[in-house]
Design brief:
It is globular and about 80 Å long. It has helices at 2-11, 16-23, 32-35, 76-79, 117-134, 158-180, 195-202, 222-251, 261-269, 308-318; strands spanning 41-47, 50-56, 85-90, 95-100, 105-108, 187-191, 213-214, 257-258, 273-279, 285-289, 294-298, 306-307, 322-326, 337-341. Helix content is 36%, strand content 20%. Helix 5 packs across helix 6 (158-180) and helix 6 crosses helix 7 (195-202). With 343 residues, the protein is an alpha+beta fold.
Length: 343
């Protein structure tokens, strides 16, 4: 692929030595140790003033693009459509919060959230003791003028145990409310099943998903939690995409949709696209001249061409549109590209 890139650079009029110098930074990563720590895909971006590479959890078809700007379309599934979600891993000994996407998961550092029921009850009991010692003003209803205190033992019957867990979870929820305020992302619980209804009673986060990951969360790695969570959350994101597809189909014939690439490319440039469906594994080479509003299509990549589907997707994102980067067979209308216009 580097040889192909060098040939394309030379064909664009760059001196052979300058082409080799431009690609030279790749030699720094082409070593044994580097290749032992790869993910599914590798993306490399090179320009005169930039060299960046990313090991990514996407299996890319091999592609070399030499142009005046970087080619991003294969990376779009990482950035659009799949959304984000949270995983709350709960046990009586620990609490962990993760943020996930379709391809990744990372742990979020927690503050003001108790790490286990023992810590929560110590804090809760300390607050109750403070309230008890503070007392109330005389005449509050008992003969001594002091408020009577009610204490719960540790380790009584099932109801008492549930009450302790509920107190614990209310503290967890209180800490999460500070962290997740104004968030709209779905939240998935992970833990032993009997904890679920207790946490749901304590919960105030509106986007808690009813279905959870059952089992002892202490025994699950972040990757195992992510895999189980994605199976639960995937239908929610697919529903959003299907709603967009249905909206497209409802508007067919009204002039507010198109699967004509020439029309779509110009509309993307002029900020007219609300929703774009783009096939990730195909390219349409050509060029767009904004001054004449002309689109030129080529069956094979020519010098100076760019992937016009990539062009449409990037301009849609730049202009606050929604892009669904999907396999070509999932684009409505059985075409590589489809759009819903704003007007």
């Amino acid at each position: 692929m580097l040889r192909t890139a060098e040939e394309q650079l030379i064909n664009r009029g760059i001196r052979p030595q300058d082409a080799r110098d431009l690609l030279q930074p790749t030699q720094k990563i082409d070593e044994y140790e580097f290749w032992q720590h790869q993910s599914d895909g590798l993306a490399i971006f090179i320009s005169k003033n930039l060299f960046s590479y990313y090991c990514l959890p996407v299996d890319f078809p091999e592609l070399v693009v030499v142009n005046d700007r970087f080619h991003f379309k294969p990376l779009l599934p990482l950035l659009t459509g799949d959304g984000q979600f949270y995983i709350l891993a709960l046990s009586q000994k620990q609490v962990k919060l993760f943020q996930g996407t379709r391809y990744s998961v990372s742990e979020i550092e927690l503050e003001n959230v108790p790490q286990g029921i023992a810590e929560a009850l110590r804090y809760d009991d300390a607050e109750q003791q403070l309230q008890f010692h503070t007392g109330t003003s005389p005449g509050s209803g008992n003969s001594g003028g002091e408020r009577a205190a009610i204490f719960h033992g540790q380790g009584g019957g099932n109801d008492e145990q549930k009450d302790d867990i509920l107190r614990y979870f209310r503290q967890v929820d209180k800490g999460l409310q500070e962290l997740l305020k104004n968030q709209q992302l779905p939240l998935i619980l992970a833990g032993v099943e009997y904890l679920f209804p207790i946490y749901q009673e304590a919960n105030n986060y509106i986007n808690l998903i009813e279905q959870g990951i059952t089992g002892n969360s202490e025994n699950l790695t972040a990757e195992e939690l992510h895999s189980s969570a994605w199976k639960i959350i995937q239908p929610y994101f697919e529903q959003s995409q299907q709603t967009a597809v249905n909206h497209y189909q409802e508007l067919v014939g009204t002039g507010q949709t198109s699967n004509n690439i020439e029309e779509i490319v110009a509309a993307a440039y002029y900020q007219r696209i609300d929703t774009l469906f783009v096939g990730t594994s195909v390219q349409q080479w050509g060029s767009f001249n904004p001054e004449s509003n002309q689109v030129e299509l080529h069956s094979q990549q020519q010098i100076g061409d760019e992937d016009l589907m990539d062009f449409a997707a990037i301009h849609t994102l730049f202009n606050s549109g929604t892009v669904y980067a999907v396999p070509p067979e999932l684009v409505p209308g059985n075409t590589p590209l489809a759009a819903v216009f704003r007007y």
